[in-house]
């Protein structure tokens, strides 16, 4: 069993109980940066608490531990001294490492016959570029096929196109993922966001029914029932009359009628809301022509990178141009910034400690149990099962 602090510090007992690691599940692909961010110079990144250098040599990607074992200098400060060789050289003494294997091929300041050559190596990581993003596999297991491991909205670039952005949160990744399994916060936190302020109140007090997805990839969150207004003894009505909510439900506000929607009947999309391992949510629209994927990437124990991967179905060049223009002129700011920043402010203010969960947390409870029991783990690393209050 892994050490206790592999899972949590004292006080974060809900995660420790279910065996959900502080630094995330390592045997999965993670997006780490936009493909456009990596140019000719190596780039330092951090994933699951590990410092990694990314570099590209003649369109081939490589990822190594960002530390030269000679004297500890960061390899990300070096460069590819021999283009076409797939190597990177340390800026201090010229130790040159093969990107594909991490092996030391030359210690330039010791001459070509240096005895240390081929006796030293640094950890290397599988890395791929896909759908405009660079993906890393930080685990010890053999990596799965990336296209098969991500939602089809990302994987099928012939049928969909995507625009991605990310924001770094000052919080542990688990707090961000707990925000996603239909916990009713959107009906309260986001009701006055620019995206929803003119639409009717979102239904709350829903009945939630989490169901496992095919292949044990995650959970579908089924919803039914609910209300859009009620009287509260001693307080009054929520929501109070709001004359400005004159629009019909559209976009994120259109949450009813999925069973009879175009998404289900025409495109065969089974669920409007899903949450996947290692920590991402898939939120579709009733039209079946758009899907948002949000992915929580553990940078370290206190920092999480939240990717917003916006996906549109390809329906002609004109529709694509319109979708791209609409995103950059409107949606990028209204949703991916302002809407998401409402969550960011609250999640970053979370104080770890005992919880008093209730009816709205059915999805959160189901996710924690599922993730702890179903995630891939290195050999010998079993979930912690502790009877802690």
How is the topology of this model organized?
Layout: H1 13-18, E1 30-34, E2 43-47, E3 50-57, E4 60-65, E5 87-89, E6 95-98, E7 104-107, E8 127-130, E9 133-136, H2 146-149, H3 152-155, E10 160-169, H4 173-178, H5 186-189, E11 207-212, E12 218-224, E13 230-232, E14 236-238, H6 262-265, E15 273-276, E16 280-284, E17 290-300, E18 303-313, H7 317-347, H8 362-374
Antiparallel strand pairs: 1-9, 2-3, 3-4, 5-6, 6-7, 8-9, 10-18, 11-12, 12-15, 13-14, 15-16, 16-17, 17-18
Structure write-up:
There is one protein chain. This protein is an alpha+beta fold and 389 residues long. The chain has 8 helices and 18 strands. Helices cover 19% and strands 26% of the residues. It folds into 2 domains: 36-128, Rieske [2Fe-2S] iron-sulphur domain (Rieske Iron-sulfur Protein, 3-layer Sandwich), CATH 2.102.10; 139-374, Alpha-Beta Complex (Naphthalene 1,2-dioxygenase Alpha Subunit, Chain A, domain 1), CATH 3.90.380.10. The radius of gyration is 23 Å and the shape is elongated. The model is unreliable at 1-5 and 384-389 (pLDDT under 50). It has a 7-stranded antiparallel beta sheet with strand order 10-18-17-16-15-12-11. A 3-stranded antiparallel beta sheet has the order 1-9-8, with no helix packed on it. Strand 13 and strand 14 (236-238) form a beta hairpin.
């Amino acid at each position: 069993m892994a050490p206790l602090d592999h899972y949590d510090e004292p006080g974060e007992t809900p995660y420790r109980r279910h065996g959900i690691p502080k630094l995330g599940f390592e045997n999965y692909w993670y997006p780490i940066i936009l493909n456009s961010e990596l140019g000719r110079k190596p780039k330092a990144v951090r994933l699951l608490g590990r410092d990694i250098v990314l570099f590209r040599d003649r369109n081939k990607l490589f990822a190594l531990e960002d530390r030269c074992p000679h004297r500890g200098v960061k390899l990300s400060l070096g460069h590819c001294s021999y283009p076409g060789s797939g190597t990177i050289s340390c800026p201090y003494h010229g130790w040159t490492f093969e990107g594909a294997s991490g092996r030391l091929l030359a210690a330039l300041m010791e001459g070509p016959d240096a005895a240390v050559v081929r006796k030293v190596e640094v950890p290397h990581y599988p890395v791929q570029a896909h759908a405009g993003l660079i993906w890393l596999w930080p685990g010890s297991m053999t990596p799965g096929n990336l296209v098969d491991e991500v939602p089809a909205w990302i994987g099928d670039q012939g049928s969909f196109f995507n625009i991605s952005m990310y924001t770094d949160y000052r919080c542990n990744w688990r707090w961000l993922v707990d925000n996603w399994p239909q916990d009713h916060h959107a009906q309260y936190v986001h009701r006055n966001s620019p995206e929803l302020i003119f639409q009717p109140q979102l239904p709350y007090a829903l009945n939630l029914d989490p169901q496992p997805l095919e292949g044990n990839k995650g959970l579908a969150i089924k919803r039914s029932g609910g209300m859009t207004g009620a009287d509260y003894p001693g307080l009054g009505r929520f929501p109070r009359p709001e004359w400005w909510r004159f629009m019909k439900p559209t976009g994120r506000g259109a949450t009813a009628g999925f069973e009879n929607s175009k998404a289900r009947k025409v495109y065969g999309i089974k669920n409007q809301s899903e949450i996947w391992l290692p920590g991402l949510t898939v939120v579709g629209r009733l039209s079946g022509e758009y899907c948002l994927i949000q992915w929580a990437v553990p940078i370290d124990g206190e920092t999480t990178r939240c990717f917003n991967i916006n996906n549109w179905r390809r329906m002609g060049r004109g529709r694509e141009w319109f979708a791209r223009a609409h995103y950059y002129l409107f949606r990028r700011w209204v949703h991916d910034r302002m809407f998401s920043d409402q969550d960011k402010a609250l999640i970053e203010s979370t104080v770890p400690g005992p919880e008093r969960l209730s009816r709205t947390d059915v999805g959160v409870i189901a996710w924690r149990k599922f993730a702890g029991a179903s995630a891939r783990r290195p050999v010998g690393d079993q979930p912690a099962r502790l009877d802690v209050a």
